[in-house]
Amino acid sequence: MIKISDLYNVLSAVVPLYVAMILAYSSVKWWKIFTPDQCSGINRFVALFAVPLLSFQYIASNNPFNMNFRFLAADTLAKVMILASWYS
After folding, report:
1. Where is the chain membrane-spanning (predicted)?
2. How far apart are the first and last CA of the chain?
3. Distance CA 5, CA 1 (A)
4. Whole-angstrom Cα distance, residue 15 to residue 61?
5. pTM higher than 0.90 for the full model?
């Protein structure tokens, strides 16, 4: 059974993300704070710097020996399948 504390944990993790997305959408669509060129620059920054550095920080601080073996196997299999379909 799902407890109220479980629901609170999920909502406290998800709501800030949705608030940020709604504010970003509103700032471009209705408030005209950013131009399309500025959005392109922000997108490029996020794609080239922010996401790779955040991913590296997460991967570097993770101990793979404490992870579930079945999860690692499923993740590896999914990536191999994507790479195989990419090159075929």
Report:
1. 7-28, 40-60
2. 45
3. 11
4. 25
5. no
